[in-house]
Amino acid sequence: MARLRNLNIIDFTRNYLNGTIPVEWATLPLMNLSLLGNRLSGEIPQWIGNLTNLKNLDLEANQFTGHLPQELGELLNLEILHLSSNTFSGNLPVDLAKLNKIQDFRINDNRFNGKIPERIFQNWTYLYRLEMQASGFEGPSPSGIAFLKNLTELRISDINGTMSFPQLSASKIWRSLILRNCGLSGGIPEYIGNFDLKYL
C-alpha cells in the first residue's frame, strides 16, 4: 500500500483486522483513516504525526493500549478524532490543544487517569460534540468547556470524585447534555432552561 502515493482514504470499518497500524502508511497523503470496529492492538505510533493532511481519524472499538502520543497534536487539519472503546491509559497530552480545527472528539470507555488538562479546550472553537463517558478521569470537568460556543452535544459520565454543574452558558444551540454518575452537587442552573435540549 505504501506505493499508492495518491491514496488519501483508508476505510476498513467493521472487519476482523488484527496486528498494529502498518508503518508503511506513514508516508501516505491520508485525509481519512477509519479503522473502527476491528481487533487492532498496540499503541498509536508516533509517526501518526506525519499524517498532517488527516481530517478524520477513527480508531474506535479496537484493542489499542498505552498513552496517547503527543504527536497527535501535529495533526493540525484534524476535524474528527474518535478513540472510544479501547484501553488507552495515562493523561491526555496537552499537545491536543493545538487541534484548533477539531469538531468531534470522543474518548469514551478507556482507562485514562488524572484530571483533564484545562488548556486543551481553549482553542477548540469549532467543537460541536464532546464525549468522555467512562474514560477514567477525575473531576471536576474542565472550565474551558464554557468557551466552546459551538458545542451542541456533551456527554460525560463516571467521573471520579465530585463536581458542581459545569458552566455551559457560552452555547445556545444545545441538543444533548449527559452528565451521568459525575458526583454533581449543588443546584441545576436556571440557564439550562434557555437551551433547546432534546436529551438531558
TrEMBL record:
What are the protein's GO molecular function terms?
A: kinase activity
Which is one Gene Ontology cellular component term of this protein?
membrane
Keyword terms of this UniProt record:
Glycoprotein, Kinase, Leucine-rich repeat, Membrane, Receptor, Repeat, Signal, Transferase, Transmembrane, Transmembrane helix
* Location within or outside the cell: Membrane
Q: Which Gene3D superfamilies does this entry report, sorted A to Z?
A: Ribonuclease Inhibitor
Keyword Cell division listed? The answer is no
Judging by the UniProt lineage, the source's domain of life is Eukaryota
**How is it placed in the membrane, per its record?**
Single-pass membrane protein
Q: What is its main location?
A: membrane
Q: Name one Pfam family in it.
A: LRR_1
What are the coiled-coil residue ranges?
A: none
- Specify the Disease resistance R13L4/SHOC-2-like LRR domain's residue ranges: 47-160
Output the PANTHER family linked to this UniProt entry. Answer: LEUCINE-RICH REPEAT-CONTAINING PROTEIN DDB_G0281931-RELATED, PROTEIN KINASE DOMAIN-CONTAINING PROTEIN
The molecule here is called Protein kinase-related
Species of origin reads: Musa acuminata (Banana)
